[in-house]
Amino acid sequence: MKSYAAVDLGASSGRVMVGRVGPDSLELAEAHRFPNRPVRVPEGLRWDVLALYAGVLEGLRAAGQVDSVGIDSWAVDYGLLDADGALIGSPVHYRDSRTEDVAQKVWATVPAAELYAATGLQYAPFNTLYQLTAARASTQLSYAKRLLLIPDLLTYWLTGEQGTELTNASTTQLIDPRTRDWSYDIASRLGIDLSLFAPLRQPGDPAGVLRSEVLEETGLTGPVPVTAVGSHDTASAVAAVPAEGERFAYICTGTWSLAGLELDAPVLSEESRAANFTNELGLDGTVRYLRNIMGLWLLQECVRAWGDPELGALLLDAAKVPALRSVVDAGDAAFLAPGRMPERIAEACRATGQPVPTTPAEVTRCILDSLALAHRRAVTDAQRLAGHPVDVVHVVGGGTRNALLCQLTADACGLPVVAGPTEAAALGNVLVQARAHGLVGDLADGRRLLTRTQPLTRYEPQGDAARWSEAEARLTRG
Fold this sequence. Notes:
Blueprint: E1 2-9, E2 13-22, E3 25-35, E4 39-41, E5 44-46, H1 49-63, E6 68-72, E7 78-81, H2 102-109, H3 112-119, H4 128-134, H5 139-143, E8 146-149, H6 150-159, E9 164-165, H7 166-169, E10 175-176, E11 181-182, H8 184-189, E12 200-201, E13 206-209, H9 212-218, E14 225-227, H10 233-239, E15 248-253, E16 257-263, H11 270-274, E17 278-281, E18 287-293, H12 297-305, H13 311-319, H14 341-351, H15 360-386, E19 392-397, H16 403-413, E20 417-419, H17 424-436, H18 443-453, E21 457-459, H19 465-474
Parallel strand pairs: 1-6, 9-12, 15-19, 19-20
Antiparallel strand pairs: 1-2, 2-3, 4-5, 7-8, 10-11, 13-14, 15-16, 16-18, 17-18, 20-21
């Protein structure tokens, strides 16, 4: 048995998990969990990355002696370093408003269709490419000598070594998914200096060893290697989908829902672009062909607005509300920013001529029905666009705890849903570390180990599929 620390940073919390891996065993335990609270300053919305790093150090201290450390986090955001390697300012939050209307400026130089054909990335206003365009005239960027994506920044602070892990780099809209290298032509035409990025790393590559100061602060005995994992948390989560064969879809649930397929090659058609699917890179040469859906962010923001009521009771009440009474487009960018979420959901229902949910239970049921409907659209569209039929949908991540959402997703998709594991990103993180140390074989071998060792729940589709088609038709009204 060997022990691996998986640092898994989400948009609302971070955690350090310890995975113990043996020839036929995989155990995961939480060492430390800490909040991730963005801070609004006069310049805009920023990540408190120093607090995150402190949480990582405290988590490593709680983890005890481990054989390796790996870090994954959300995508697209970055820190800038000066010539001395010091951080310049706090990293900008992807929900900051600085990228509003920036896409049109980019498309004036590289039309949207051409950009998609070159990078395969869906349009999202916060993609790193748009962030860098928005920051072009900033003093901070003019002084920067290095740009590190969030997990690479924390790895640098732990080890003193710099790199750019590939799965996360593929979310910048600056990677060619066919070559799995930088899209030099796109960067050049948009005036983006790729020398800002550290050399690319692959999942499983060594990323240094913990610095002596880190060993002293955490109480660990060196050397402790740090291993590059699928540092985009979705890449790690997809690696932990306990699927057999290739005929499966996945939905990585949490603040976002990432719904799609695992493919051998990107889908770069104009139809795929119009459907807003993205081609991000995964382990072992795979492509994560998926659509971003607003996810449980909608419910998180409502719960915050309601004063944090008990979630279990809220879900029980929501289950009693008539199904599909009102739905909204869970992929609509109108729901991206924080604040006034119950009111915005009500406004969206009113605009499409549907009953307006008023109670927390009604709003919650609207959200869950809407998420299941968005999952249905994504799974259906992905199969059609990729020519890749599926027999089962795997739901991983935090949404696996929400039995109502899992059942509604099965009902909407008309396919069985296998829910679990919940801590998929951390497990995928651990598996890559274990692979690097020879304890686990290829991607399929790791998935077989997950199937044998992790609790999974199966949901069979129920109800009338036509009701979901009718609900979807309502979204085009108004």
